[in-house]
Batch of 2 targets.
Target 1
Amino acid sequence: MALPPADPSDAPTRRTPLVIGLGNDDRGDDAAGLAVVRALGSRTLGAARVLEGPREATGLLDLWTGVERVIVVDAVRSGRPPGTVVRVEVGPHGFPSSVRPSSTHGLSLAEAVGLGISLGAMPRSLVVYGVEAGDFAAGRGLSGPVARGVVEAARRVADELAGAALGAGEG
Amino acid sequence: MAERTIRVDYLARVEGEGALKVRIENGRVEDVELKIFEPPRFFEAFLRGRSYLEAPDITARICGICPVAYQMSSAHAMERALGMTVDGPLRELRRLLYCGEWIESHALHIYLLHAPDFLGYPDAIRLAKDHPEAVAHGLALKKAGNALMQVLGGREIHPINPRVGGFYRVPTRGELEALRPMLSNALGLAEETVRFVAGLDFPDIEEEYEFVALQHPREYPMNEGSVASSRGLHLPVTEFEDVFEEVQVPHSNALQSVRRGAGSYLVGPLARYALNHDRLSPRALSAAHAAGLPPVVRNPYRSIVVRAVEVVYAVEEALRILDAYTPPPAPYVEPPASFHATEGAAITEAPRGMLYHRYRLNADGLIDEAKIVAPTSQNQKRIEDDLRHLVERSLDLDEATLTDACERAIRNHDPCISCATHFLSLDVERR
């Protein structure tokens, strides 16, 4: 999986929307973010770059620093029914106080956002789509409700990008 | 005050899941238990019946921070079992891959996990707000290590390219040459890191460690050497289990490795440095001198400086290997065509210390028995000893301060709990 970093000197790359899916293929519903970008990969997304994200969060800083518009898709756990899709806008101070993302291993997306804000290594706009996960059992693949959530998340991300492109065209 | 209990239910800034419990009765420390509750992993059991060729790929999955160590120890053990010799450029490429893992793992620990302890921050994010340049240096160093892993390992985490006998594919000169600007820049950042950490405040404490590490006649040890200790041990890797044994303790899912008849010992950067500092590269050695490091460092808090010196070494060594590289005629040494029942053991130096692997193979080349002794298993008892001494010195501290101090003492040794379960929450009980 090649991860070409955004070249900050490359203005067209910075202006191209970037979609990053996170997750672990071997841990059941944790693969939801990867499944969403794979579903998006088969659609026409205009000029958006669609990537399967780095396995560790510090790599996100390299990918998204200076990029104008970034959407990250990841599995989440909030107590909602599995497969529920949530959309969160990450502001200049990080995640909204109502959202407390966490990870038990290594650095989490929330820590990448925290480091990125401290270091001035953030995209201009960052939206996170979360697909509520149910089962993280090793080797199981996506559960039924989460697989349906993946389809919905992919459609919403595509719609958001299309809306952005439309908006840009109109602008 | 009769009984006091200090507890940490979940240790922060360590890899994996563990807890700590300290019981103090009438001003005496009765129990110190580093509890590793991350579930057992059963790797040694499910390696049985698998091909010798699968061991590097399977054992790499034990750790996301030090997969190269697992690949290297398993590959070397298999090669010894099968009488294979891997030398020349292939040996150098393995060393280069290991440099990548040392740089990546040490930079992560120094800047994101350990430095906040010295500067009074709860985590790297808060540290980064006040010291953005330092953290950016750390991330740039880590990236250089990752780049080496990517080129040689096929990907940054859980590399897929190393194999018994060498690699599935070796890099071209051009692919390595492309890494030069990043590594040249990393050398300056690594030296700057030594200056940064040497200026931190260190508690004035020394411990009487028995240091155990590989020792090699010419090199600062990574892949090869014999086992040496600061108390005069010197033995071939094949005799490791005669001298060291793993014991089970009820409070932990990790076995604790001890020296038979002698108790705890310490592996990792402090041990490697104490036994091998004269084999450091010129710039690493001068960075150590400039930082005021004596030839043997017994202050566990100063391990952060030794780690930083090892990063200078690893970057300089990587550049040396890169300069001399000529691709080998074949990417790997062919294993023998036929097998007989055999056995092989190897130790390599993971960032956290010695990693021992031993395999018994049958005549079909399948694994009949596997034994893996991870660095954190070896350090676990010694960390408990450090904690016992710390608590004995600090009985007058209030609960919160003592708890923080205990967590710091653990992080000095960069425990990898996932590997050891093989980790941390603190529970101090006072009576």
Target 2
Amino acid sequence: MNALLGTVGLVVSLAGALAGIAQYAWGIRRRSGTAIHAAGGFVVLVAAGALLSTFAMQRALLTHDFSIAYVAENSSRETPLLYQITGMWSSLAGSILLWALVLSLYLALVLYRSRKREADRSLAWTMLVGLVVAAYFFALMLHSANPFITLAHVPADGQGPNPLLQDYPLVAFHPPMLYLGYVGFTVPFAFGISSLITGRTDQDFARETRYWALVAWVFLTVGIFLGAWWSYRVLGWGGYWAWDPVENSAFLPWLCGTAYIHSALSAKRGGNLRIWNISLLISTFSLTILGTFFTRSGVLQSVHAFSGSKLGPDLIVFFAVVTLASLVLIAWRVPLLRSAGMPALLERDGAYVLNNLLFSAFALVVLIGTTFPLLAQAVTGQVVSVGPPFFNSFTAPLALVMLFGMTVAPYLGVRRTAGAALVDALFVPAVIALVVVLIAVLAGLRDKGVIGAYGLAAFALAGNGKQIIRRLKRGGARSLGSMGGLVAHLGVAIVAVALATSTAFGTRGEIKLTPFGTAYFHGHRFTYDGVATKVTPARTSLLASITIDGSGPYHPAISQFGTNTQVVGTPSVKVGLTEDVFVTLDSPPQTAAGPVLIGVVVEPLVSWLWIGGAVMGLGGGLGVAAALRRRRAASRTRAALAEPDALAIEESA
Amino acid sequence: MAVSVSRDEVVPPLPPKRRHALRWVLGVLALAVVGFAVAAASVRPSSPNAVAPSPLVGKESPALTGHLLSGGSYRLHPAGKYMLVNFFASWCTPCRAETAAFERFLAEAPSHPWGSSVHIVGVTVNDRTSSAQAFVQQLKVTWPVVFDGSGVVGLAWGVSNPPQTFLVAPNGKVVTRIVGQVTAPGLVSLMNLAWSTYG
Amino acid sequence: MRAKLAVLALLAVASFGVYLGVSPSRTTQAQRISYLETIVKCPTCISVSTKDANTASAFALRTFITQMVHQGASNSQIIDQLLATYGPSVLLVPPSSSGGTALAGAGIALVLGIPLGGLLYYRRRGRKPVPEPPEGATSNAGGEPLTGGANRSASERAPGWIRTALGSASLAQKLVGAVGVALILSGGGLLAYGVLAKPSNVLSPSQIVLRLKTGEQLATVGSDTQALQLFSTVLAADPRQPEALAWNGWLLRQAGRKDHSRALLAAGIAQLRQSVAIQPAYLYGRLFYGISLYQDSHDAKGAVQQFRAYLSLSPPKSLTNQVKPTIDGAFAAAKLPAPL
């Protein structure tokens, strides 16, 4: 029943997407607004089909319908309710379903947002491109990643999700957020392709494109930080970012998308910024497909990948087709996109060009590092690994230059700004930065990267903070909407400080404790009060009871989930604003009175990583809110549309 | 220094007669994408349990010297003999089952032409002397067992998690490495294969 | 302005001076150990260095690195020794022999080349004059103009079914029409899907037998990967081939146990179960499923049932001897006397 319902949903969506493509194409060919309007019905149908499939999947998960192979593999009778629901994105086929659902809802939203506008060719092309992508994913599900395959012999109980996916409730938020961002970049991509085809280059369309990119960016940013947080709380080695292929796959589109939301603000579109913008949008989307290939084909080894799948060839072909088609379109439209006006470095558009160059270099370094094992294996057949040492040493200099740039750029005018005026405006932030550097050096810090990060983060905090205060003074609280970018920059600076500090000053070690014994590690006092076994239907845990500096108890554990024989370590963290103390149960006691081995990681300022991420998300949210308000104002007074540049400039880089 | 808010003229597109170096860039990019896609598609998904072949295979075997659990010292000296070097630990469950497989293999060996020229040596890694001794006594291990307390031998052979077994040919070259539990028929097939190659 | 620049320069020089003055000129042993631990991967982990991992193998490598450094070995000596035994994948930065130089070169070229090259390019281009725009070329606000809903000439030339959907009908009627069209298409789609989902690659019976034989041999000598490849080609041709299901399931299950991969384990067990259901008289199917029931599902009773079926199929002695401990264990767990 559920399988049938789900499959019907998939087929309806696929058919709806194909019919919608045909109808939009027909409407474009006939130049018929009515036909284009009517094609919207198919978009709604696609969303309805995806919702039906999702409903069927959730129903199957919640009613333990183990006749569906996916449910039998990713849920069990013992699985708690929350993890039954999250079972939908516990493995491949369900994740693709989530992807398709998010995409079809996005398309329906685009349609809803444009309901009052005249149906024109550019909207039709946008929807058509979106539907092509949607059709691909629905076809993928019906072809090689079907979540509704049934089992001939229905098992009495399922296997339950991967133990790591039922250890911490963040798994309910991180993947959906990530997908909202990841998939969301399909919409600006569709807008971009549409503008290439129709030759639309006006501000109104560009601003709509950027709005959707900003929405996706906020979700992707929050999703990536939630993912880091999840790794930190679950994987048990005290790290949050390992430059793992799966992490890079989310980070690469983020880099291109971030470059785009800056570059799209350019006022004059000199310096070929139109070509930049469209290329960045296309790269962002292509990289989401490529990232899916990395994570789902099993060609790269990852801590997060569960197992290889048959999707590799399908995905790489789609990636190649999308990228090649986009390149051909750009080549065709070069005369329209190109402009001769080259900005000076000390003006706003010059800063955007530099921004694009830096982000592109950053993304290419990450891309080369991620794909190198793949290329090496294809060329030489050797298995190699590329890890943090490579990525850190090549991206850190770029990141430092970016910290500098994001402080100076908000002070640049649309026209060339005099160097003297810049020195004037940035004097106080620069003094603060240099004093921080001096203090750091005097305190005995020797790592150039960390010193640079502290100095430039201080510069960025002071510079962007000063700009925020200035604008607040001038415009009051109402101007808050126009400073999303500045707020996001503050978040980046906070993240930089937290990253540098936790990497440079984190220490790890192991302590051996006998019951009621006390040990000291790095200035912290640990007391061990014994172990207890906790049995619930879902899991059996051996919990150690540890008091850290008199507070607690904290319970690092070793858990075994359901019938799964694999045991996983569950860390416990004493969270603090200045320092986290992270404990793991490395070796359980042999007897009740025996000694226990506790792994300890002391990491300073880790909490600020999450705070910084939240501030970045908040900045993006302010930008989205400002765009929404502007739109409402614009629809009230049509005249406002005639002054696009004034508004774009208020919004900071 | 104030942010000047002014409306700048939009820079127009150029007349199309300019040469477009950019198209060349795009062409190169397109070639790169195709090349990358072909390379990526040609890589087989690494089987989840695939282990990269040991770099030692085909090379002179590393040194194996150490104290025997039964007392005395040991030095690997394969001249004229096939040596099966088995890395194990008392805490490892498959290693326990493996011991029986080696027993059966030794029992079956005499019926094969290579029967008299194959020897086994065990190496315990990441282990305690007492538990290793208990293991050897309990399972009645008959072949010499080297105790690698410092982990130096394991590192020299590139062993990260037991059980792993190396076959060293009479000429001192490493023939193969088996990662994970061995089986008696597997070892017999392996020896047949090695015998037909190395004699 | 000058005064401000002077203050900044003073602060910068002071910091730099202090940095140079206090900075030790030689790296200490502890720094070297820390560096080596950062670039050496924990052999049993993915993406995690020996410094960060808390596995036994990482511990052993940390000990090794510390000992070697204290014995006076150079960084390259230590790295070379690790490369010789573990291969290039033990380093988190590929060694130069495995393309490390190319990677580092590419990294430097990207980090320096893109920003600097881009800026140079823009400086060179920036001096050229901007031509005046032709009238009206500035922007193309709405795309090309469209005929609105009032103009029927387009829809009148449309095929019949689309004309019905678009013509002068009300929006509700159009929606109903669209849904109807989609449902018809869906029906066709379901049908097409059903037809297309039939297996396409065909193997002759003799090919299947040959592949099964070779696969079994490969599996017994431990070449699991090649064996799996063979079995999966058989299964692609005939997804219900019981012998291939049994072996493929068994190998997947073994791999799942080894890698702690729940997904592999589940896939393997499902295939074993299917194999027994399709061909109850296949010796290995019974045996493998029995072992799996006992070891994975801890279902001793079910395992005993499978083992009894297996023993009734008069298995070869050597095979039974190999699995005797497991069979005995299962019977003991089910509180039954050992059958052998």
